[in-house]
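ok so i was messing around last nite and threw this chain in just to see what happens. nothing serious, just curious
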Amino acid sequence: MTLRRVAITGMGAVSGYGRGVEALWQGLNSGGTAVRQHSARFRGRAWVTYPMASLPWEPDARGLPNPEFVRDNHLQEDPDFLAIADCVDQALEDSGFGDERQREDMGLVVTHESPGLAPHVMSFFRWGKMLHAWWHSRSKFSPPDFLYEQQADSVYRLHSFLYLHYLSALFGIHGFTLFNNNACASGIFSLAVGVDRIRSGETSAVVVVGGDVPQDGTKYRWFRDLGLYSQLGECKPFQADRDGMILGDGAAALVLEDLDKAKQAGKTIYAEWLGGGYSSDGWKVTLPDVLGKRYGASIRRALQSADVTAEQVSLIVPHGVGSGLYDRFEANCLAETFGDDGRPWPPLMPLKGAFGHTLGGCALLETIPAILAMRKGKIPASVRYSNYDPVLPLGPCRDGGLGSGGGLLLKCTNGFAGQNGAMVLRVGEF
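result:
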């Protein structure tokens, strides 16, 4: 059986550079990063200030197709949902799915590492409201019962299926749905699911969306306490003076379609999915299995699935978190495929130094500027590194750098808990 070809026909993004794909591209070409000092606030005051690529505006429901639905379901208090919904709206418009009747059989795959966390965390700090509730509660002298009354709603909202429900209702998407969480590799795993639904013939279109808006300070504290956050206030992927990661607000949505049907409809084909590779270390949560070599295996599987060789790859977009250990591990895994004997490599385009680590949404968000770079034949100034750590086995860039007219893109990600994913896209004329 001939498998259906799958294309990306719509894109939407929010990042520290602003709202939209164009703002992301222009920001990357500015030569500067989106990292700034961000203050997480408690009762109107900053309780912790740290560097991150935060959104330059407060997410809200304006512009969404049904802001009343957002308000009625108290989603205006959830910046993660608002950012994700914004990206879905952008991507659907970009791909030409303006009529809700066109979305009756459309699929939806959503990824987020901790949906509903932001409003749940904030519910603990509404002390005035809690004191008032305690005074009027019949359970005031039964702490377990009182705490349940106060937290029941925000705990319930931690269920991941609710994001599927809210997005399906908001945008009229009524086909196959799935919530997925494979840590930082979630985007690649999620795209693979969407591709399979189209190749199976179940649907001709799937929206894949994910993101993270870690503005309340809890995730920063977690990474800082693990010693993974940059003390320099900069993320420097694969550079000798790298000292850790920087968080970033961000989300992205991609519309996948049957390529032949999309071409017949005259749609823009941004890229074609060729193949993917996946693995799970099953070792430690916050450390990669440096001896298992499963991340490198997922990269080789992606190339094999796409039926291409390492020499045919035009651009590599690595995970590149800026950590001493993780970057060394990733460079070694890439060298297993591209060589550590001085042979030329495709250009590298690590993106987290520009707009931060967007956690569960990073693979999706980083795919968008990678596709644009290949379509335009240009690596943006903000991520055009030249001073990689000489200790790392990174090969010299091939002569000519990134040529125009497209080619093959390898995007790879190794996430916490040993979640490894890689994919190959073809960018060019279709």
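not much to say yet. The longest strand covers residues 6-15.
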